[in-house]
Every structure is written in structure tokens, then in C-alpha cells.
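C-alpha cells for CTP synthase. Go.
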Amino acid sequence: MKYVLVTGGVVSGLGKGVTASSIGVLLKACGLRVTSIKIDPYLNTDAGTMSPFEHGEVFVLDDGGEVDLDLGNYERFLDVKLTRDNNITTGKIYQSVLEKERRGDYLGNTVQVVPHITDAIQEWIERVAMIPVDGKEGPADVCVIELGGTIGDIESMPFIEALGQFSYHVGPGNFCLIHVSLVPVLNVVGEQKTKPTQHSVRGLRGLGLTPNILACRSTKALNENVKAKLSQFCHVPAENVVTLYDVPNIWYIPLLLRDQKAHEAILKALKLLGVAREPDLQDWITRTRVYDVLLEPVKIAMVGKYTGLSDSYLSVLKALLHASVACRRKLVVEWVAAGDLEDVTAKEAPDVYKNAWNLLKGSDGVVVPGGFGDRGVQGKIIAAKYARENKVPFLGICLGMQIAVIEFAQSVLGLDDANSTEFDPQTSHPCVIFMPEGSKTHMGGTMRLGSRRTYFKVPNCKSAKLYGNASFVDERHRHRYEVNPDMVPQFENAGLSFVGRDETGQRMEVIELPSHPYFVGAQFHPEFKSRPGKPSALFLGLIAAASGQLDAVLQNYGHASKLLPNGMSNGKPTVKPYQNGNAIKSSNGSLNGVYSNGNGVHY
């Protein structure tokens, strides 16, 4: 097994996750099998109880693991299925060591950070690296490890020590360290400054790790004299100093790495030059070509609670982007804070209220994503009502589906106090209830989590067609509440169809409004399995409906690739190929390929 470690210096948020994912793509394109591990030095056992404002979205895996959003990047880029053990946290390591200590596994020894914690980290990495994640037999060829945080953080010290020992343990030719650092440009002089990276590498070397490759984040490509300076002071060959400059879409990053021959430096360090082939990135090149020619916009209103941080809905954004590219439309996301649609805002901040409604009314489609808590719920109900009554394409995810059910009960069934017991425990019409197997005392890992099977009970429904006329589908879940099965006959008699259910038929999974162009809700999270080349079916349906292409997609059983819309001719983009970064242009307002109204925080 070969290992590639990605660390970060100077500041956090440089894009280590995207860099690690892109390195994986590049190695996979060289014919190697790749797996990934993310190390998060925080004490939480997993990301499940952390606020999206604190750490971005919680990504859910097939096995129910609630993990860091970077694992979502790995899955999307590499098209693999990771496990909960692919996310290592300080909490997991200490928990495993303390469990061994309680069992007496250490035979009365004093349990210490070194060697017991550091040994546990190394054993975990070696064990998880051997788990196949690409659907094939046997272990991968290369494991890409991302160390979260910044070099010098106190909380990451045990991991740094463990990885230093690990590099010695696996030996030369089996370990490659890539250090992602910042080369800022001061506006006053316009000069690229190398000192922060020099200090970061010095700190890294002082902790026992020596970088093989420097991946330098900057606003533009590094000058040759800057590369030479970094090479001299950081003891890294000049050809191993790679620039990761700002691009309009993260799909360009694997191409940037390839153009700078980063794969050759990695393969040389891992002694794989004679084994791997030249990278075949044709799919990525085609994808970036198609993206470059997208002109016709499709506006989607994202009505949520955490709109102040776009990372809170990262997978939803990516799923919308995948579907938009498949439908050959430029995605424009209109961020609408759910609370801004409520009557109380009209009284307290009329301008905010008016702006929110203008964004909603100007959109081609509406998404109400998942969430917890009662803040903004009324605004989400209002958004669902607007979409239903005005025939605007709508997709409700998890809580968003429950919101659609509550709105239908209130507006169509005339049950004014209908609600979820999450928001009103005393409601006389509980159309959404707490699941029997849930826990009300422990929050972490107690929800209905992971991949579950949904059976389509209405074969001719839009959802089943979008999934390729499938009779069932496996999707990932994360919820404590569900639609009250006792009220389902009442809903269906009024026209709301529960087209997807679990194996018992008692748990509602997918809703549709047959009388509406596209009004769909899913209890699961379809965004977690969306891929750049394989968009999520329900998101594809939303974008297709919002851009007037739904009938064509449904006729082709959900395969958008059979369409030949703008910029396409016989399935091939009618644009020039990507070469040496020449196709990359700045795009004001672009959010990794997603255009935004600016209400969210861009990264």
C-alpha cells in the first residue's frame, strides 16, 4: 500500500479537501485504485452533533456514518463509497484506546499519548486503507490521507507524531507528503510573498515531516522566481512546487495538477512511474468544456435556515450543479433565508421581506433542504405553498418533504393546527411524528441513518421514471421524524400521492403531487449520492422541470445524457479543448461553478 498525506499550513480553509480529492482523481486517471481517509483532530466522535454554521454540512455515508463534508468531496470526485472508519477523529481514537484500557488490553501499563494513542492512529490508518471502496475485490493501490486543521495546532500534535512515525514505518517509496500552503499577494506592492509558506514548512520539518511537494494556493500562477525561492528555502525541487490558483470551478483542479505534472512527482516519490500510465482525464476535460459554454440560466431558490454559510448545503449545491450541467444550464442559486418570508419580518424589516419574496418569485424552481429545529419553519411552509399553488417546480428534502406534507394538511385538508410533533408536541393533527426507534435522550448517532431501500408503489410516477423505471432505489437517510402513517389515506384521498415507501409500506419515503408539473418530496437525502457524471435523479427532475426539459428526460427514463441541447452536437461539446489553463477565466459571483445572489458566504 502506498500513502499520500495532504497537510495544510498558514491558514485553514485553503482547500485541502478539494486538493486531496483532485490528487485522487489524477492517480485514478493513471490507472491506480484509490481510497481516502480524512483525519479531523476535534474531540467529537463524529460530525453528527455539530452545527452546520460551525463545520459545514454533515455528510452521511451508506453505513450511516455522519462525517466531515470533505468525505463528500472524495466520494463525488472518485465515485467511491466510503465507510465511517474513513473519517478519523480524536474522539474515536481516544474512545478506542480507553475501551482497550478498560478491558485490560494494555496489561497494566501506563497508557500514554506516545506510544498508545500514536500506535492506535497508525493501526487505524493501515486497517482502513485496506478496505475496498470502489466495488472491486482487494485493497486499493494508493490511500490519500488528509490531515485536517493547520500545522502547529495543539489538537493535531498526536496525529503529526503518529504520521511521522508512520512515514518511517512504511519506508521510502511508500509515503509522499504534499503540503498545501498560502502564497498571499499584497495589494500594496502586488508581490507574491513566500515567507508564510517558508515558516509553515519549517514548522512541519521541525515536527518530523518533510514535504515532497508544495501545493501553493494563490490568486494567480506563481512566478518562476517565486518557485525558485520556495524550492531553495523549503528544500523541495522546483518542479515539485505546484500552483493552485483561483479557478471558476473546482473541476479544473485535477487538470491544473496534471498540467504541472504533479502526478509524475507523486508517482516518482511512490516508485510507481513504471506501473502507472499517463493520466486519462477525458471525462473531466469534457465536463469543464461543457461548463464553459453554459449561458442560459436556471434560477433555483434555496429556502433554508443556514443560508449564511453555503457549506451548510454543500452536497445540495453540488447535486444542483451536476443536474444543471446535465441539462446544459448555468445554475444560479438564490439564497432565501426562510425566516425572511414570514409575516413577522414584513413588520420588522420590510425591505428584507420584499427582497426575499422577489427572489422566490423570480426563481424557476424551489428547494427546501433538510434541517432541525423550529426556526424558519413557517417560512419554509410559505415557500412550499407558493410553489404548489403557482405550479413552480419544487423539491423538498427530508424536513423539506415533511414541510410539504404539513402545508398540504393546513391548506388543502383545512387542518389549521396540523404540524410536526417536533415543532408542536400538543398538535391535535400530528402529520409528522417521532419515530418509535429514536432516542430523545441521546443525540449522537441515534437517528435513522444510512442507506435504506425505498420501493415505488406507483410504477408510472415521475420519481420512478427519473430513476430509470426502477422498482426500488437505495438512498441515504438522516432523520428522527416521519410522516404519520395513520393520516396517509386522508392525504391520498385529497390528491397527495405517497409514491415511495419502505419495505413495510408504513414509512413514507417519496411524495408527489400528480396535478403539479413537478412537486416532489423525499424523506431521504438524494444529494449524497449525486456525482458529476451521474446527477441525482430527483435533482435532475427539478432542473429539467425548471428549464422546460422534464418531458424529454422522462421519455428517456431519466437519462439526461440522451438530450442534445445548447452547446452539444451528437453528444460532443462544440467548444475548444482545455489547454494549460487557457480556458480558465475569472467569474465574478461564481461559487465553484454555482452563481449566487451573494447572500451566502462564498468559499
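Confidence is low (pLDDT under 50) at residues 564-593, 595-603.
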